[in-house]
Amino acid sequence: MRPILYLATQNKHKVEELSSLLQDHFIVRDLSTLAITEEIPETGATLVENSLQKARFIAEKFQVSCLADDSGLEVEALAGAPGVNSARYAGEPKNDQANLELLLKNLVGIANRRARFVTVLTYFHDGAFHSFEGEIQGEIVEAPRGSQGFGYDPIFKPENQDRTFAEMTLSEKNQIAHRARALEKFINFIDEIQKCADE
Question: What is the pTM assigned to this prediction?
Fold first, then answer.
């Protein structure tokens, strides 16, 4: 029987992406099944710190196996911004549209549009934390395109692609995206553990 894995995120879009990629290995649960109401803290200075902080918060509070995600968009011409502040780039409360508009405004007149998406996943199980990173290079387009995805997806065009993430279906995005690449490393880790247990 597949083990239960709780996703340490309250972002329904991340839950959808992660669930679609993990369903063959786990029975995936979101935080609504734990009746959590408070905001999970994200006070780290890096994606790694935030991912670990979120995983530790759920693990210590509920003593369950969980997977936390922290992702960020790093724009070369903006010295890596918004980076760890991607979800709150335009301030509080979190607002995807405001973040996107501010980023485009800050890139007006700038020729270098290179950027990358980065995801750090942290897995807690049996008292130990394990982290996995994935990234994808690309560029910021001049104006939003597409209606799929979330966050900065309408303005991020992956390298060697003609479409933004928001112009792709979820399955298309999951074949190349940063989160999928981090998850591939995580699933390989899980498969290796299972292989050792079966020997």
Answer: 0.91
